[in-house]
Amino acid sequence: MTSTPNSLFRHYLDSLIQRGTTRASLTEEARDVLRTWYVTAKKGSRVHSPSSPSSPSSPSPRPEPQPTKTPPPSTNPELFPEERKPSSSITLPEGTMEDKLQYLRDLAQNWKPARDLNSLRDTMVFATGNPHTQLMLIGEAPGYYEEVQREPFVGRAGEKLNQILKAMGLSRDMVYISNIVKFRPSLPNQRTNNRAPTPEEIEACLPIIMHEIQVIQPKMIIALGGTAAVGLLGEQGSVSSMRGRFHDLNGIPVRVTYHPSYLLRSDNPREKRKVWEDMLAVMERMGMPVSEKQRGYFLPRE
Ligand code: URA
Predict the structure, then answer these.
(1) Ligand 1 in contact with 142 (CB < 6 A)?
(2) Entry pTM
(3) pLDDT per position as a tens digit, 100-144
(4) Is the minimum distance from the CB of 152 to ligand 1 under 6 angstroms?
(5) Spans of all domains in the chain
(6) Count of H helices and E strands in the chain?
(7) What's the mean per-residue pLDDT of the chain?
(8) From CA 129, how far away is CA 177, in angstroms rounded?
(9) Is the CB of 231 within 6 Å of ligand 1?
């Protein structure tokens, strides 16, 4: 059998599981690989029709992973069957933007599709910032610190996000910051450790964020990390394959970039520059002033 980086990675994970390891720290690339496996396996287990063009030729509970460098560009109708529009099951009340957001916040608190999964924790973390903004940033899900403070992005990733905003000439109260999943994904014996939400958890919470977008009507959305990007856009792919251009979500441009926590793990200025180039593109598209100094951030020194 030939060893590919993916099969080696799977072997490594299997060996960890056999040794009883329940936690591992993963790079963004590794998380992308896992995400792709999960989605592919899920799709394989749900597709039964032999005439379906996406059915695997031989049913396999663990289909071979796709290399992350060449992700399938297709949307995933199995996981995200609806058009990327708010579902009709939520009817927003008449009133101000604040009234509508309060309605969504109350709704999210007891959101049955999410509660019924029994895989998310109880505390609901909604959003923060200025709803009258043109720029909306969407992350993955609250972590330990967000759950304690009931506010998105207040932990270390939040500090990194604040730095990014500052470099753009912005602050938290000038933008609207939310998450695609409103509850911290749970783990056995959980303390401060977090996990990324599953596609089911994302799908369950999706109507809430879609309605937030409908209420805010931002001119621009920044999807922070693969979970937000895949969930919002309904496309499969790694952040590396989705960043560097604008996507469209019901007429709103969406820029995908690495999650701030990726920058916490990687001290490489080239990775910082990639995020920064995404931010420069956002600033330009929104008509924000960009100084020469800003243009040069994280470029290699001569
Ligand atoms: N990571 C996220 O994606 N969202 C948060 O609110 C915190 C960390």
Answers:
(1) yes
(2) 0.76
(3) 999 999 999 999 999 999 999 999 999 999 999 999 999 999 999
(4) yes
(5) 97-295
(6) 12, 8
(7) 82
(8) 6
(9) no
